[in-house]
Design goal:
about 350 residues, about 50% helix, single chain, Glycosyltransferase, alpha+beta, 10 strands, globular, 14 helices
Length: about 350
Amino acid sequence: MTSPGRTERLVLPGVLTAEQAARTVAGIAATQRADGAIPWFRGHHLDPWDHTEAAMALDAAGEHERAEAAYAWLARHQNADGSWYAAYADGDAAAPTDRNRETNFCAYLAVGVWHHYLSTGDDAFVDRMWPTVFAAIEFVLELQQPGGEIGWKREDDGTPVTDALLTGSSSIHHALRCALALAEHRSDPQPEWELALGRLGHAIRRHPERFLDKSRYSMDWYYPVLGGALRGPEAKARIEEGWDRFVVPGLGVRCVLPNPWVTGGESAELALALWAMGESDRAVRILKWIGHLRAEDGMYWTGYVFEDDAIWPRERTSWTAGSVLLAVAALGGDEATTAVFGGERLPVGLDPDCCR
C-alpha cells in the first residue's frame, strides 16, 4: 500500500485521513495494468478522459512513475489523426470497443501532461509528450464550429458530429488553457489555439443556444465553472441558480434530473468547482457528504439511489476515486493541482473581437 507519508497533502479533516488516502491511492494503483492503462475497474473498459483523471490523482499522491506510465500508454495508442477511441477493452490487446473519437476525451491529455510537469518539473517528459498533445489539440480544433463551440465527436467512418455539448466544450476550454501553458513553457507559441480558446470561452459564456440542451445533467450546470470559462460573479450566480435542483443535502449531487441518484464523481467535481470559485467551506461539506459512498477497500461506489436506499451501479471506479483525491488535493494546497484547476496563471486566449 502507498505510504501515508506520501499522501500528507491528501488529508482533509472529516473527509480523508492519511491512511484512508493511502488506501484510495492503492486502489487506483491496483486497477492500473502493467502497461500503464487505467480502466474504470479491472475487467471493464478504459476511456481516455477517465484514464487521465486517475493518472492525475496518482501524481497528486506522489506516484509519478505510475502517472507517467499512464501517459505513455496514451502516446502509444494515439491514432494517426491525433485522436483516441472512446473506449478500449481491459486486457493486453487494448482493442477499441467504441470507435467514436470524442473531442473532450482527446483534449484532456493536455490537462494531465501540464499537471504532471507541475508535479515533477520533468522537462524531458514534456518534450516526449508534446507531439502527442499537439496532435490531439489539432484533432479537436478541426471540429470547432463558426460560433466557437466544439463538435463533440467524429464517428468511426470519419463523419464529424458538429453538435456541441456544453460539458464537453467546457472541459476542452480547460484543456486548451493547459495546452497553451505547455506551448508557452516550450517557447512554441500557438496563436491559432489562443484565438480558438477565446472563441470557445465566448460561446460558453454568452451563447448557450449553440449547445445541445442537456440542462437536466448536473455537469452542464457546474462544468463552465470547473473548466474555467466562468469565474467571479458569473460563476457564483450559476452555482446558486442550480444548487437546490441538483444538490441533495447530506448525500451529494444528482447526476441527472429528476432521478433520485447522487454520484460520487459529480459530487467531487462540484467540490473542485466550488473550491476554484473560492467556496472552500461548501466544497468540504460536499466531500464530507459523499463519505457514504466510500467502500472498505478505499475506493468509491459510483452512485446511490436514495429513494431505494441502494448503491447503484455496483461498481467502484478509478475515476470516481481520482476525482475525490483531486478535490482533496486542491483543498489541501497541492501546488500542481491548485495551479491546474485554479487557473489563475493559465493562458486566457484571445478576445474573438480583437481580430475582426
